[in-house]
């Protein structure tokens, strides 16, 4: 298999770091939307912007209060040897241009689910191996990576039939948004960074525009913004695919969205607009689908992953990867479910120990905040619940984040420890925890807090990004 000259032809590179242990772990072992977003970023000239992501999970598994982290070495092996073969590039290019529809377990699951009646997969490796149709859209990170419409530099879009060209697609979108606002009169300003993201994605994929609409507020922002872009595409002969809901009351929201689509079709005379596709995701399982059917809904397609291909009792850890800063601008993902609101900006994390030697709390601060100091009182706050707060006087402070892969920076990196050292550290960490945090039945919750300054900033940005409703 030949590879491009910007990547290695064998599994060793970057100072002799071996490739992933599992040969199935390649760049194609990914969701299609990672490739569609990469193309949209590149087309919009955003691919060189410096971004910060948080990798985290919201709940410890099996009802416990701790989780053992492992696998960093495999991640570094993958990054150090990241390359695409020519045939893989050709396959991805074909998928994008035609709008085609344990790691090896994910590929196998895609194959067998397709046999069992599923229509498509988002797993690009499975699509290449088995010829399964691919489907994908974009993530919340794509939406929050934009700040304003001014970031869109190439605003032109050729009509579907190729005979015409719109030189300012952005203005066309804004015109349609104004028309929608005047005709409905039930909402105020939509989130403009979301509108910019939708517009940019439509410019990259005018034939495959399916938007994730719950980054800020579904009905006050996501749906009006989507409709404005979809109507602008319609003017040029394209038909939008639809929207995806990934949080909130899926039954209620799908019905509200369908009614909105139908009102747009009636108001502006756009055929079939009321029938645009509504897709739902968000850790769906059989019980959820049954409940939706009993409630009544307007969902046309379901994106099911976690509960389909993993152990049902504890399907997965639920790890998420959220954009929190881009070009030094903090970003936030909002949700009707407060537990899904992200914590913005680049951060530092510390573990504060008490007099008895046990950890009392982990605290996150902004990158440039002073570090907590031994013997000095610090206010620790719950990120979202105002009344949950406590002063802590730490007897020992441990900084938790270390750099093991500096990339192209000159940041000093730590050396990955040997397996035996990792095991010893894991055992020592568990022994340091208070027994009531470790018990199997009803363990005491371990506190993870934010500094007072970070708490204030979270809520400032939350109010700044959330659209304000308007009643008439």
What would you note in describing this structure?
It catalyses: 5-phospho-alpha-D-ribose 1-diphosphate + nicotinate + ATP + H2O = nicotinate beta-D-ribonucleotide + ADP + phosphate + diphosphate. Its cofactor is Mn(2+); Mg(2+). With 472 residues, this protein is an alpha/beta fold. It has 15 helices and 17 strands. The chain has helices spanning 32-43, 72-80, 86-98, 103-115, 124-130, 140-144, 169-184, 192-204, 218-235, 250-268, 286-295, 306-309, 419-432, 435-438, 452-465; strands at 12-13, 17-18, 51-57, 157-158, 165-166, 210-212, 242-245, 277-280, 301-302, 319-326, 329-330, 347-353, 359-366, 378-381, 389-392, 396-399, 447-451. The strands form five sheets. Strands 15-14-17-13-12-16 form a six-stranded mixed sheet. It is globular. 30% of the residues are buried.
Low-confidence stretches: 1-13
Number of spatially distinct domains: 2
Strand content: 5-15%
Mean pLDDT: 90
Level-1 CATH class name of the largest domain: Alpha Beta
> Strands across the major sheet, in which order?
15-14-17-13-12-16
Q: What's the alpha carbon Rg, rounded to whole Å?
A: 24 Å
Q: How far apart are the first and last residues' alpha carbons, in Å? A: 64 Å
Structural class: alpha/beta
Helix content: 25-40%
What kind of sheet is the major sheet?
6 strands, mixed
CATH superfamily of the largest domain: Aldolase class I
CATH topology of the largest domain: TIM Barrel
Question: How many strands?
Answer: 17
Q: What characteristic shape results from the CA principal axes?
A: globular
**Number of separate helices:** 15
Quickly give the CATH architecture of the largest domain. Answer: Alpha-Beta Barrel
């Amino acid at each position: 298999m030949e590879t491009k000259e910007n990547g290695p032809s064998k599994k060793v590179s970057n100072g002799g770091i071996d490739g992933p242990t599992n040969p199935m772990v390649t760049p194609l072992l990914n969701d299609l939307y990672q490739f569609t977003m990469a193309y949209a970023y590149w087309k919009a000239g955003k691919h060189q912007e410096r971004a910060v992501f948080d990798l985290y999970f919201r709940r410890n598994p099996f009802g416990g209060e701790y989780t053992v982290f492992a696998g960093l070495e495999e991640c570094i092996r993958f990054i150090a040897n990241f390359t695409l073969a020519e045939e893989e590039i050709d396959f991805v290019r074909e998928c994008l241009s035609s709008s085609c529809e344990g790691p090896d377990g994910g590929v196998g699951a895609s194959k067998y689910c397709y046999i069992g009646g599923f229509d498509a997969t988002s797993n690009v490796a499975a699509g290449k191996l088995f010829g399964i149709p691919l489907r994908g859209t974009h993530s919340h990170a794509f939406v929050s990576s934009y700040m304003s419409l001014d970031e869109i530099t190439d605003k032109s879009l050729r009509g579907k039939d190729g005979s015409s060209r719109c030189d300012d697609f952005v203005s066309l979108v804004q015109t349609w948004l104004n028309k929608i606002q005047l005709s409905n009169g039930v909402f105020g300003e939509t989130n403009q960074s979301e509108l910019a993201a939708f517009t940019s994605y439509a410019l990259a994929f005018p034939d495959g525009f399916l938007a994730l609409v719950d980054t800020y507020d579904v009905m006050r922002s996501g749906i009006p913004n989507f409709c404005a872009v979809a109507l602008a595409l319609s003017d040029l002969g394209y038909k939008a695919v639809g929207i995806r809901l990934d949080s909130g009351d899926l039954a209620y929201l799908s019905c509200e969205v369908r009614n909105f689509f139908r009102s747009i079709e009636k108001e502006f005379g756009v055929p079939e607009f009321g029938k645009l596709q509504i897709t739902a995701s968000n850790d769906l399982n059989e019980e959820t689908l049954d409940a939706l059917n009993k409630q009544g809904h307007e969902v046309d397609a379901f994106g099911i992953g976690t509960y389909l291909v993993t152990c049902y009792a504890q399907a997965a850890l639920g790890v998420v990867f959220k954009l929190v800063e881009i070009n030094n601008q903090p970003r936030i993902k909002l949700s009707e479910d407060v537990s899904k609101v992200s914590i913005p900006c680049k951060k530092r994390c510390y573990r504060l120990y008490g007099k008895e030697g046990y950890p009392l709390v982990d605290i996150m601060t902004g990158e440039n905040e002073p570090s907590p100091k031994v013997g000095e009182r610090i206010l620790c706050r719950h990120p979202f619940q105002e009344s949950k707060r406590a002063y802590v006087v730490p007897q020992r402070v441990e900084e938790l984040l270390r750099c093991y892969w500096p990339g192209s920076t000159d940041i000093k990196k730590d050396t990955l420890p040997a397996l035996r050292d990792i095991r010893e550290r894991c055992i020592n960490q568990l022994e340091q925890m208070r027994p009531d945090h470790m018990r199997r039945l009803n363990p005491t919750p371990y506190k993870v807090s934010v500094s007072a300054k970070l708490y204030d900033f979270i809520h400032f940005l939350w109010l700044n990004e959330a659209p304000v409703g308007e009643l008439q």
